Amino acid sequence: MASLSFKKVDKEIIENILKENKPYFQEIKNPTLSALIKTTNNETISIFKNKTVLIQADNPTDFALRYKLIFKNNSQAVQAKQLPTVVKLISPEIINKEETILGCDEVGVGDFFGPLVTCCAYVASSFKDEYPKIYSKIKDSKKLTNSQIYELYEDLQGKIGFSVFIMDNTLYNHLYDLFKNTHKLKALAHNQALLNWFEANSQDMYYSKIVMDKFVEAKHYFSYLSDRKEVIHDKMEFHTKAEDKYIAVACASIIARYHFLEKIKMLELEFKVELPLGANNSVKLKVQKYKKNNWDVVHHFTKMHFNSKITN
To answer: Which residues bind a divalent metal cation (predicted)?
Structure first.
């Protein structure tokens, strides 16, 4: 059984949950609770007086999506602690008002297995001069070995700031079923990494621009976010192959890759499966095997909409 917790939930969402689950109300023994619900789907919903909603279920994302707790239209964005995220705070001495860039990139888009991971990295223009040895090693994560990724991730600690958002496979699959558009999912994930960054570091923190590795035209990116209440858009630029042009984007790529690889390890241990990277025929054979033999759990580590048909 897994759990998801949401803070400061809108009043209308709570009222809707209570209205639709009235037959499943339980006796309340905890004085901090305003309602306790146990559904026939083995879901336990605890609604606290401070407007926190705790979902405990085999698949809590189902309930969260049903009641628009995740990426809710016209409401607050998902908070940093509600879904897997990592925010590395910036040290004041790193800030350089000459040119400090927030670079954004994503990892996991082309892999059958594992989550979609987005990262924004906050890198000062002085980084090259202050850390020339590290700077010389940094490049797009696709051009680095896994051991190089791990080495550079450790090298970057304390020298840059970053925010990582991990859209795990369960959430990814649910959102894809809703929207049928991977670009929208990437836009949602990037926007969430940025929101988490500014929430942790304050909206007043200086940056000269945000550079997004371009996966879609700017107008489409923002159209995918048109139903979100909070969208980061100020001073944002979109560039193709941005990881080769901007050190901040390359750093974002490396950090996202590190967290992707770590998540793959966790999934392999949790579900006792081997999760090779990529989408070639040997990977597809694994996908076919897991869909046949591990159907109950395969959606927890696989992007289900990918075509697993073997190609010549």
So the answer is: 105-106, 213
